[in-house]
Amino acid sequence: MDEARNQDNQHALRVLEVLKKASKDLQNKPIFTRSDSETAIKALIELDTEALRVLSTDPTLFNLSTLLCNLNTLVENLEKSQGYGLQSLLRRQLTNYKITQVAKSIETEIQAWIDRDQVKKLVETLEESVDEDEKVKALVDFETRVSQGFNRDLQDLILKAKIFSMLEFILCDSTCSKPIRERSGLVIAALVRFNKDVFVGLVLMGRTIRALISMASARSLQVLSSLIKLIKSPLVDEIESNGEIPKIMSLLMGSEDLSIQVMAMECVLEIGYFERKEAVEAMLEEGLIEKLVELQRSEHGGDLAEMEQFDENGNGGTHVETESKMEMEMEMESEERKITGNHPFASCVARFAIQLEVGEGLGQGERRAFKLEILRRLREASVSDAEAATIVAEGPLVYVVIVDRALSRFEF
Asked: Residue 19 to residues 35, 44, 77: CA-CA distances in angstroms?
């Protein structure tokens, strides 16, 4: 019985997907003549008989059946008003507008049905299925849908089905496989992007952050980095107050997995940008600068300034003007990844100092005090004055040195 119902459901879904595409095409291609009518509505008309048979078996699609009948009536009216007089032209314009509105309503009704079906399947799959691949696929499909943008009806379905609680439970369940837990974390991040007003509070009040850090995988840290970018200072405060900073630092310093170290570094840089004094102090006390110097000295480190002189084709880099701060940040991140390549820790000390310099939350006095502390620790961690000088010259720390030298000439 369940198998037969599932097959009927899949058949209905295929029909509805085709109807949805046809209705979208109809909205994008206004019709004014008979030939336009024949090409733009052909798919809807041809599907009408099949669609009505499928829709009649599902009471939740009664409104859609009514809309399709209305569409047929409007198309017939359009066919009857193909004269060349002013009255015929106005009638066609009005009918065309009505057809477009009905097409929008059809698309909305179909999407609502698809969303209900997908949420129901997700819950059933996560609760009942023992197939790991099936669970991952259901999570990927749901993440794709949520990533398409905010939809109030979909949000109501998500909240009613308690999807967030289900995802967080899976994320915190150490008996679940890592791929499913990681994918659940990615869906949680997608929900935060979907609507921060609703889901940020759930993240801050729940166990999501602790679970991501304790999982200690590159993917879980990637999700954490994304959440820091999305939630900003409130999440940094939560991480610091819960004593999670040392755990992140241990992944940067102690992991033998390069990908984990790289993502831990991303988290450190994000925390540095959405700076809170206590969080920065905690990272420095854990030996962040000393570790960054060591990483920069390693085979995966180096000097970013030398790398960015040439692009991947051996040509000088190009400057791309952007129209917004977000576009600029995305462009900078893309360029940085392209330049660093196999050297993810290139100029990492300077990159952290820059995050403090351009970030949010600290006053000028606090920034200067932190840069002086970074400079002190950098000099102690360097194997020579030459190494320290090279690292200092890469970033904003060089200005601290210049100011200090200038001030040292005066006695107060």
From this structure: 20, 6, 21
Give CA–CA dist 355/110, Å, rounded: 46
SS3 278: helix
The dihedrals phi and psi of 262, each to the nearest 5 degrees, come to: -65, -45
pLDDT at 322: 38
Q: Is 237 exposed, middle or buried (0-12, 13-18, 19+ CB in 10 A)?
A: middle
Contact status, residue 273 vs residue 355, Cβ threshold 8 Å? yes
Helical (H) or strand (E) element with 30: none
**Radius of gyration from C-alpha coordinates of the chain:** 29
Overall pTM surpassing 0.90 (yes/no): no
Mean pLDDT, residues 70-98 taken together: 77
* Residue 165 pLDDT: 97
Straight-line distance from the first to the last Cα atom of the chain, in angstroms, rounded to the nearest whole number: 89
pLDDT reading at 35 higher than 60: no
Fill in the DSSP letter of residue 11. H
**Closest of 168, 159, 169 to residue 189, by C-alpha:** 168
pLDDT band at residue 327 under the 50/70/90 scheme? very low
What residues have CB less than 8 Å from 160, skipping those under 6 apart?
none
pLDDT, tens digit, for every residue of 22-31? 777 777 765 5
Provide the 8-state DSSP code for 29.
S
- 53's enclosing H/E stretch is helix 34-55
- Distances 359 to 30, 274, 354, 364 between C-alpha atoms, Å: 49, 6, 8, 11
Element (H, E) at 409: none
The pLDDT tens digits for 353-403 are 989 988 888 888 999 999 899 999 999 999 999 998 888 887 776 545 444
C-alpha span between 194 and 167 (Å, rounded) = 15
pLDDT average, residue stretch 285-308? 88
